[in-house]
Amino acid sequence: xxxxxxxxxxxxxxxxxxxxxxxxxxxxxxxxxxxxxxxxxxxxxxxxxxxxxxxxxxxxxxxxxxxxxxxxxxxxxxxxxxxxxxxxxxxxxxxxxxxxxxx
Length: 103
Hints:
Elements (H helix, E strand, L loop, with lengths): L14 H27 L4 H21 L1 H22 L6 H5 L3
Helix pairs in contact: 1-2, 2-3
């Protein structure tokens, strides 16, 4: 039985609630999901890895159904954080053509 879900009203969600949501997404995105995927990839079974990746994607789709506005703000915030992190600590990788060039 499918229970229809109403999107969360973002106006009712105060700044503390949004900050808590961002904190949970940060912990899940940087600690839980990568560790779980490393553990699943360590099983060396491609089918299990594919099913887990699809499950994570559907989990993101479920979060979208709960609150599209919060997901848009979260994606924007993490996009900005990723860009700033690359600008500060990142570096470009050499291109394959440059790596094969003979001096």
